[in-house]
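hey so i finally got around to running both of the ones u sent me last week. sorry it took forever, my laptop kept dying halfway thru and i had to restart like 3 times lol. anyway pasting them below in the order u listed, first the sequence line then the C-alpha cell line for each. didnt double check formatting much so if smth looks off just lmk and ill redo it

first one:
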Amino acid sequence: MRTLALVVSFTLAPLVAEAAQFPGYSDTGWSWSDKSECCAEAIALAQEDGMNRCQVSGGFPNMRFMRRGNCRWRSNVDGYGSRVYRCWGDTKISCK
C-alpha cells in the first residue's frame, strides 16, 4: 500500500508544480484620457510583472492558464480641465 502511495505521489508531482501561481501588479499613474485604455495597459503591465516574477523564480509562465486580470481606477481633472485616469492592475500567472 505504501508503494502505491509513493508511486501515485511521484506521478502527480509534475501536476502539482503546474499549480504554482505568481501575482502581478501595476500602477499606470495619472496620465490617461481614456479609462478603457488605462485599464488595458494596467492589466498588460500586471501580466508582465507576474511573468517576470515567475521567471526570476526559475519557472516558465504558462500562457494557457493566464487570467486576464482586474483593474481598479480613479479619475480626476487636470489643470487644463481634462479628465485623467489612474489605473491599478492585478493578475495571477501560472508558472511551471
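and the second one:
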Amino acid sequence: MTSTTDVLIIGAGIAGLTSAKHLEDQGFSVTLVDKGRGFGGRLSTRRIKGLHFDHGTQYFTAGGDAFKAEVARWKKQGWVRKWFESLTFSDERVDKGSHPRYVPKSTGMTSLPKELAGELKGDLHRGERVKSIAFENALWTATCDSGLTLSAKAVLITSPVPQTLDVFEASKLALSKPDKKTLSSIRYAPSLTVMLTLKKGVFSDLGEGMKFPNACDLNWVGNNTHKYKQNKDNVALTLQASAAFSTKHFDSEEGPILDALLNAITPYAPITREHIAEKQLHKWRYAFAETPVDKTFMTIVLPSLSGASLVLAGDAFGERAKIETSWQSGRDAADALAKQLSANV
C-alpha cells in the first residue's frame, strides 16, 4: 500500500489529469491510477512503420472562456497549435466559420496528456486496473488486479460509467435509487477505427480531413500525413466509422469492416486493398456518451457510508462528448472535492 493521499483519481484521461492538477494547485495531495499503458484515454496515437496515427480523438475545439484560457496556456507552453478552421464535408459543404481545431505540436494526440501528466507531483500508476473500492475508518482503499492497494480520503472516478458501475458492483456498494437511475440511463456509442498506410506513390488528397453525414458508414477521414507533416511518400489515413455502423459491426472481423469503409470512401478517394501497405483496426467500446447527464460532475450518495466522499466526472457529464466537456468536468469535480475535504478538516 502506498501512503494515504487526499484524493485518489481513477482514470487518467483529460478529466482525471485536469482534476489532479486543479487539486494540487489548491494544496491537496493526489494519486492517479489508470488501467492503460499511457495517459489520455481516447487522446491516443499509434505508430505504424514510422508513421503516427491518431486513432481516437482527432482534434479539439474551445468554446467557453475558461477553456480558451487553458488552451492559450497550452499554446504558450508549446504543446498545441491550430490545425485548421474550415471543416470540409463529403457533400461539399464547408464550415467556414471561425472555429479553430487544435492538435498537439508533437507527433500525436497522446503527447498532450503526457505533458499534462508531467506537471503533476503525485504518484501516477499506469497499467493498474482498480477492481474494487472500500470505505472504512474515514478512508477509501482501492484494490487493483495486481494486488496494489491505494488509500485516500476521497475518490474521484473518471472512467466510462459502465466500467464504474462494474467497480461498484464488485465493491458491493449500494447506490441510492436516484443515483442508480441516473447512471443506468447513460448510454455510449462505440467507434471502429481503421488506420491505413498507402503504398509509396499512392496519394489521395483529402486535405486535412473530411466529415461525412450521419447516414454514411463513415464519420471521419483524417490525413495524419498533413496533420504532423510526415513523409508525404506514404499517406497515413485514419478512417472512423459512424456510430450506427460501429454499433452494428462492433463484433465483426476486420475484413468486412475494412471493405465497407473503403467502399464509403471510394467516391472521394478511390482506395482499394491493393493500395494498402499496412492496416490496423482499433475498437473503442465506450467512444461517445450518447445520453450524458446535464451536470458537469456527480457526487455519489452512499446511504450506508456516512462521510464518504465519492465523485464521478468525465465526458458523460456535460453537454456532449468532447475534450472541453471532460476538462470542465474534471475542474468542477476537483472544486467540489476541495470543498468537501476542507469541510472535514
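quick thing i noticed on the 2nd:
The chain has a mean pLDDT of 91.
anyway thats it, ttyl
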